[in-house]
Amino acid sequence: MNGPTATLDETKPGARARRFVRAAEMVILFWLIPIGFTLWRRRPDAVTDLLDRVTGLSVPLLRHPNGLLLPTLAAFTIVCLVWLLLDRRFARRELWNWRGARAQLRPISMIALPMLEVLVLLSWQLSPGSWLHDTLDASDATRWMVWPGSRLFSLPRERPELWLKIMLFYPVVSVWPQEVLYRAFFFHRYACVLRRPWARVLGSALAFGFMHVLFLNAVAPLLTFTGGVLFAWTYERSRSTLACSIEHAIYGCWVFTVGLGAYFYGGTIYVDR
C-alpha cells in the first residue's frame, strides 16, 4: 500500500502551525463552502439581496444557483488540478495510473455486484406505495394510488434519450472532477493532517458525503458517504484516480438507472421525481 504523497517535515520550524493552517483550509473548502452553497440554494433571493445591500452589487444570475453547480465544480477542479500539477511533490501519474486501476478491477467488481443489488432494493423501497417510503412519509396522500416500486428504472423507461446522455457524459463531466478533488487533491494536500490511512479514507468520505447536503435530502449524503468510503479506500490502495473514477461511475450511473437520480437532481439536469 502506498503512503501519503505529501507531508510536512516535523523537524522544520513552524511545521505544527502550517499543519493547523492546512486543517483550517480543509474545513473552509470542504465543509464551510458546502454549507454556504446549501444556504444559497435554500434562500437564493435572501443571499442575493444581502449581497446587494452589503456591496451594492446586483447580480441576477445569483438568484439561480442550481445552474451554477457544474460550473462551480469545474472551476474548483481546474484550480486544484493546476495546483497539483505545479506541486513537485505530487506524483502526476496518480491522476490516471492505469496499472493501479487494472489491479483494482477485480475487487471493485466483487464489491459492486452485491451493492448494486442493494441499490435496486433501495430504489424499490423509496418509491411511493412501498413500505419504507410510506413509513417515512405517511402524509403522502398519493401513496395508495401507485404500484410499489413505480420509480424503479423510471429514467431509462420514460426518458431513454436523457438516460443515455447521462451514461455518456456523467463519468467525464462529473465523476472524474469529483475524484480529482476528493481523492487526488484531498489525499495529497491533507496528508499532513490525516496521517493514517483510515483517517484519510474517513475524512475524504465524510467531506464527499457532506458536499451532497446541498441536494436538500437525507438520501444523497448517506449514499455518497457510503460510496465515498469505497472510492477513498480504492484510492488509498491504488493511488489511481482512474480506479476510483471507474468505481464511482459504476455506482453513479446505476443510481440514475434504477430510479434514485432524483435525489441527486441539482437543476443541472432534469429528472422526474
Which H/E pattern describes the elements? HHHHHHHHHH
The unreliable regions are 141-146, 268-273
How many strand units? 0
Please state the CA-atom Rg, rounded to the nearest Å: 20 Å
Approximately how much helix is present in the residues? 55-70%
Characterize the largest beta sheet: strand count, sense, and whether it forms a barrel: none
Notable features of this structure?
10 helices; 273 residues; 66% helix; mainly alpha
Describe this protein's structure.
- With 273 residues, the protein is mainly α.
- It has one domain.
- The protein is 66% helix and 0% strand.
- It is built from 10 helices and no strands.
- Helix 1 packs across helix 2.
Question: How would you summarize the topology of this molecule?
Answer:
Layout: H1 15-42, H2 44-55, H3 69-86, H4 98-125, H5 131-136, H6 154-158, H7 160-189, H8 197-211, H9 219-238, H10 241-258
Helix pairs in contact: 1-2, 1-8, 3-7, 4-10, 7-8, 7-9, 7-10, 8-9, 9-10
